[in-house]
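Q: What does the assembled structure look like for these inputs?
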Amino acid sequence: MSATIQSEQLSVEHLLGIKELTAADIELIFRTADGFKEVLNRPIKKVPSLRDITVANLFFESSTRTRVSFELAEKRLSADVVNFSSSGSSVSKGETLVDTVNNILAMKVDMVVLRHPDPGAAVFLSRNVGARIVNAGDGTHEHPTQALLDAYSIREKLGKVRGIKVLIVGDVLHSRVALSNIFCLQKLGAEVMLCGPSTLMPRHIDSLGVKVEYDLDKALRWCDVANMLRIQMERQKGDGIANFPSLREYAMRFGLDLQRYERIGKKILIMHPGPINRGVEITSQVADHANSIILDQVENGVAIRMAVLYLLAARIPRSTV
Amino acid sequence: MSSIPLLTSKAFGLTVERLCYQLIEDHGDLEGLALIGLQPRGVLLARRLRTELLRIIGKENLAYGELDITFHRDDFRHRATPPQPSITQLDFMLDERKVVLVDDVLYTGRTIRAGLDALLAFGRPSSVHLLVLIDRRFSRELPIQPDYVGKWVDSIGDQRVTVEWKESDGADQVLLHTANDGSRDTAIPQGTSAGR
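A:
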């Protein structure tokens, strides 16, 4: 038996962000995900744990990976699932978020997976409705399950997270993935460096205890893992001024192509949260490289989301009616 | 707190050996048989059985797996904390195989029910038999009975039976723990207990 104290249940009732989790919570999620990863390799990839739980997936913003991943995770836990996306719904008729959710909860829903364009939407909802909330991305704030699956993938490939040097490249300003990753990696004892155009680097970001480097080649030589963020075209137009001159110029300075990768002179893991703008953040040759773990990230996403749903559901009191 | 040995090292060895011969008696050269140990403590018995069986029949290999039943338990959300998974190691399909499910102590029968449920994810065995080292009869909560039994034990609710192994606990033995009356120390030792 190891001497470290292992927690047996999450310290939180909702998964709103990584910031609220303890390192023990994250370790617990990882250990539970190990079990689900094995389940996902069985001929029948389904267990009955959540069969008396109903989950609503509320997506107020477009998503492919995250929505499919959550839905598969829920179904493989035997939960009942309802899907909702804002287009074609009463949201376009002016209904408020709380009203929309309360109407869905009136149909006896236990958990809500929420994707929303506004930062803080998940926290707001958790204070105003009676279901367990899982944040599936709220604006530029947090995307906790993405950070968990990223760290889990690093742990799987390198055997540990503690002491690993992780570089996050690109549009840090608009990235909820970056913020959640910084919190998650630091709680697990990894070192984090950010790299990108200074216009896409939030002010005072170094107060989070991360290194900042503007020369990608230098940054790549430092790291063990490079997480290449997506340029978020839909969030660039905020103040009407372009944050970088052109995609081509961005790709030249902050994109990773095979030449640049081979110049590093050591093996580093390539990650990307998806969807990839091929030829911008990374070229196809790098995306499909042997050291790219982009599809492992997607695979691990289902196991991580199963673990999160399972551990949160364990804290829902059983109805006595 | 007092502990009575139910099986000491010598009797323990004889019992395991007898169980092996019973399996051989019923299943011949063990072709088509699959030995499946239940996590966490049943696998210790299953591993011992596998070693002994291979020694007795002089074969190199035996279809063998270890099954974790955590996600099939019926007490999820009935407990204060969620049960933690162990490792499932089963890399073959069970279709048309004769499965022998192995656990150390049979008590309420709920673990076995979950085990039967978990087995279904690996195909449709032609039969499933249950082998346990200790059967705490008269305490069943479900209609489940073993096919191979090392030893029957008649015990009451607040008694505990623990199986200890040379490999992990230092000695092969089975102990019956009885809590003394409430005025004295009634703490049940943790650690090597089978959690039943």
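Chain B touches chain A through 21 residues (CB under 8 Å).
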